[in-house]
Amino acid sequence: MNWLVKIATSHGVLLGVEKRVTSTLLETSSVEKIVEIDRHIGCAMSGLQADARSMIEHARVESQHHSFHFNEKLGVESCTQAVCDLALKFGEGADGEESVMSRPFGVALLIAGIDEEGPQLYHAEPSGTFYRYDAKAIGSGSEGAQAELQNEFHKSLTLEEAETLVLKTLKQVMEEKLDSKNVQLASVTKEKGFRIYSDEEMSVVVERLPTN
């Protein structure tokens, strides 16, 4: 399982993922672990990519539907609820009809966004349950990473400080040496909405990391 780390601060939400490459022939740029749901909501995934695509497409449709009918952005919690409602439909179906899905989803999502309530971060589990966090790490043996976040997180973190904390946490748990090619960052802010960092921005952030 690849690593995901997210932090919600008063300035916005910062998402970080490990881009684990399973083959030397695979282009790292094609490994998509962070995607946009709407201009104010982004998502990072860990698990089965096909399942993630289904859930994210559902979230996008729900967000567009809400915007069209109510002329307002879908709230971050409502977006997460829509994704989890889909996950809960496993095994359901009317009499004589095939169920919506033949098996549970095999993917966990970290959904981050900003709305009238400010920056928000949710962890959507494959079971269809979700929880809100200020900071969250997902991955094999995530207890150590979560403890690191708990020790260093505070609401007044700037986005730049959050960038450093996310990468420090990833560096601590990744098997490979962290560099600008095997990690990816994205942010959601009120001013710029959701955006994924460019290669140049990633190089700058990684160079800021302490060497020890």
TrEMBL record:
Belongs to the peptidase T1A family. The keyword Cell inner membrane does not apply. This is Putative 20S proteasome alpha subunit. InterPro entries: Ntn_hydrolases_N, Proteasome_alpha, Proteasome_alpha-type, Proteasome_sua/b. Keywords: Cytoplasm, Nucleus, Proteasome. The keyword Glycosyltransferase does not apply. GO terms for biological process: proteolysis involved in protein catabolic process. Gene3D superfamilies: Glutamine Phosphoribosylpyrophosphate, subunit 1, domain 1. The 26S proteasome consists of a 20S proteasome core and two 19S regulatory subunits. The 20S proteasome core is composed of 28 subunits that are arranged in four stacked rings, resulting in a barrel-shaped structure. The two end rings are each formed by seven alpha subunits, and the two central rings are each formed by seven beta subunits. The catalytic chamber with the active sites is on the inside of the barrel. PANTHER family: PROTEASOME SUBUNIT ALPHA/BETA (PTHR11599). It comes from Cladonia uncialis subsp. uncialis. It is found in: Cytoplasm; Nucleus. PROSITE patterns: PROTEASOME_ALPHA_2. One of its GO terms (cellular component) is nucleus. Its main location: cytoplasm.
